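Lab notebook, bench 4. We co-purified these components, and the gel suggests they stay together. Before we commit to crystallization screens, I want a quick structural picture of the whole thing.
Request: model the full complex, all chains together.
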Amino acid sequence: MSTRNKVLWGIGGALIVVYCLFPIAWIVSVSLKAPSDLSNGSFLPSTPTWQNYDLILFGGASDLFLPALVNSFGICLIATAISCLLAMFAAYAIARLDFPGKKLILSTALAVAIFPVISIVTPLFNLWRNIGLYDTWPGLIIPYLSLTLPISIWTMSAFFREIPWEMEQAAQVDGATTWQAFRKVIVPLAAPGVFTTAIIAFFIAWNDFIYGISLTSTEAARPVPAALGLFTGASQFEEPTGAISAAAVIVTIPVVVLVLLFQRRIVAGLTNGAVKG
Amino acid sequence: MASIEMKSIVKQYGDGFPAVNDVSLDIADGEFMILVGPSGCGKSTLLRMIVGLEDITSGDMVIGGKRVNDLAPRDRNLSMVFQNYALYPHMTVYENIAFPLRLSKTPDDEVRRKVEAASDVLELQEHLERKPANLSGGQRQRVAMGRPIVRDAEAFLFDEPLSNLDAKLRGQMRTEISRLQRRLGITTVYVTHDQTEAMTLGDRVCVLRKGKIQQVASPRELYEQPVNLFVAGFIGSPPMNFLPATPEGNRLKTPFGDIELDEKRAAAVAGRDLLLVGIRPEYFEDATLVDEAKRPVGSTFRARVDVTEWLGDSQYAYIPYDAPDSIKAQLRDLSKELDSEELRTQAIVSIDATSRIREGREAEFWLDSRKVHVFDPETGDNLTRDAEAGAELTRLATQDRLEQAEDARGRETDARGGATAVGVG
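Here is the predicted assembly.
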C-alpha cells in the first residue's frame, strides 16, 4: 500500500470512529455536568463533577439503580448461559445429524426472532400475573430466552457447520467415545463460536427495555434499562438527564469489558489448518 | 496386527442403492491391500465400513478373528489417515500425535517416548511444538501418519491420503508410506483412485466397480491378465487400446491389419463375430526401430498419425481408427465409467523417444501380438486370460512380500542387537 493510500485509509477510519464514538463521548460529558450546567451550550462541562455518579451509586437514586444493576447482571447472565447451552445442543444436532424437521426448527427459530416483542408483551403481562411469574427473575429470563435462543441457534449452527466432520470421526477412530470426541475436539473448535454467540445473546438481553418495563414493578426484578426510565429529577422541574447519562456510562462498562476480554476468542478462523488450507 | 476378512459385505443406503454389493475379501496379516476404482465405486465406503464409521447392511466383517460388525470405531483398534488429514487444529503436533495415547490414559513418560520415536521416523522433531495451521501440506500429511504409528493398531487404513499433495511430494510420500509399511509389517488397507499408487504400493490390488469386486490380484497380474474390459481399461496409463476385430481362423482382422493368435487363444475366441482386442500402448513400436529378431513375433501396419507427444524419455502417437457404431458406443460408456471423456476412437501408441514419426504423416508401426488380449464386447469378459499365469504372478508377489517382511524384521533385530552391543561396550 502506498503512503497516500495509508493516509486516506487512516482518515476514513478516524472519521468512522469519531462518528461511532461521538454519542458515547457526549453521554460521558453530560454525565459529568452538574444539573445547572446541562444547558451551558458547550460540549464539555464547565466544571466537571462526579455528583451524578454519586447520586446513582450512593445518593437518592441508588435505591433504584443498584438493585437494578444486580437484577440485570443476574438475569442476563442466567439467560445467556441457558440459551447458549440449549443452542449448543440444538446447533450441534442441526449441523451434524440428519433428522426430519431440521428446516422446521430453523425457520421456527427465525419466525420467533422476527416476532415483534411489543405484540406479545401484553398477553405475557396477563399470563405472568396469573401464574405468579410477574416481577420475578424467571419472569424475565423466559422471555429473554425467546429473544436470544433463535439467534444463538442460528449463529452456532453456522459455526458448527464449519467444523469438519472428519475431526470427530478421526477422534472416534483414535479411540474416543462420542462424548470424548465432542468434549476434546468439537468443543475447543466451537469455543470461538460459543463465545461470540454468548456475547451477542448477552447484549440482546442486556439491552431489552420493553420486557423489563412491562413485566416488573419493583426492585425485585427490574433491570437497568427499565430503572433508567424511572429516574426522576430532584424536583419536577428538573430533568434527570445527568443521572441517566451517568447510569448509561456505568451500564456500558461491562459490555466493553466483555468484548475486550473475549476479543481474541471471538476471532474465528481457529479451524484453519485442520484440513488442507 | 491382524488379518481382515470380509464376507458378503453389503452397504445399502436409505434409497436402496447398494454402494457396496456383496464384497468378499480376505486381507492377510501384514499385507498391503489397495482398494481402487473410479469415483463412486464404493471403495471409500468399504474402508469406512472396516473402520466402523459406516454401518454394515449385511455380511460379516472379521478383524483378527473377531466379528466387529457391531463394534464402535474405538473398539476396533484400527487407525485411519483421512484424505484431508483431520488434524486437531487446537493441539500442537505433539498433542496431535499423542491424542490416541491420551485417550487410552497412557502414562506421560511412555507417551513422550512413543511420540518421540514416531517423530524420528517421520522427521517431525523440530515441529513438535507447532500447530498444524503453520505446517506445509507434506508436514501435515506426516503428522497425520504419526497418529497411527504411536498406536499398536491392528491395521492402518488410508483414505486417499496423498490426493491433496502436489505431484512431487506425492511421489516422495508414496515411497515413505511403502517403506513404513514394510518396516512395521502392519496390515494396511489403502484407498486410492490413482493407479500409480495402486500399482506401486500394493501387494494386492482390489479393483471395484459400482460396488462390486472385479478382480483382486497383484499389480502384475492385473496388468498382464485382467479379467475383463473394465480392469484392463482401468489399470495402465496411458490406458489399453481397444480395437474392434473379427476372427478369421487363427487371425483377427482389425483396423490395424491382421493379428495372428496362437492356437490356445484362437480356440478361445473361435465362433464369434465381433470382438475387442486389447493392446497396451507399449506393445506398439515404430516399425523402423524394431529389432530384426523381434519382428516375426508381431505384425506391421501403416497408419496416419494424428498427434504425437514427446516426453523426453518416451513418445506417444495418437492414431485414429474407425469402429462400428456399437463398439463406439461401448467404448464411450467404458471411458465414461473410468472417469475419462474419450471423444474419438483413437489408439495411443508408445514409440521410442528417438522415433522421427511426424504428425499428420503416414508411418509404419509394428505390433507385438504375443500379449494382446481379446474381449467379448457384450459381457466385457477377457476371453484369452491365462488364469494360471496370473495366479503365478500373484503367488510370486506374495512370496516377495513375505521375504521382504522377513528381511525388515531381520534388519530391525540386527539394529537392536548392535545397539545393545554398543550399550554393553
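Chain B touches chain A through 33 residues (CB under 8 Å). Worth comparing against the SEC data before the next meeting. Residues 136 and 165 of chain B are 10 Å apart (CA to CA).
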